[in-house]
Amino acid sequence: MGFLDLALPTGRSTAFTGLAAGGAVMLMGRLLTGVSWQWSVLIGASVTWTAGWLAARRTEDRHGA
Questions:
Q1: Vertex 38 angle, CA 33 and 44, to 5°
Q2: Is 5 part of a structural domain of the chain?
Q3: pLDDT digits (tens, 9 = 90+) for 45-55
Q4: Does residue 7 fall inside a structural domain?
Q5: How far is it, in rounded angstroms, from Cα 36 to Cα 53?
């Protein structure tokens, strides 16, 4: 299924990591740049997914799954 195959099972901590990273980037983008809201949605979603994915991979490596 394309990029959906990259998704790993996540827990609360990895989901929250993605949420926090995406929220921080969205807030910084809103306050520090003049990026249009259409682009900020794409940027925020990409950062949220990527941060959650990286956190899940790190957790997977740590637990040996």
A1: 70
A2: no
A3: 999 999 998 98
A4: no
A5: 26
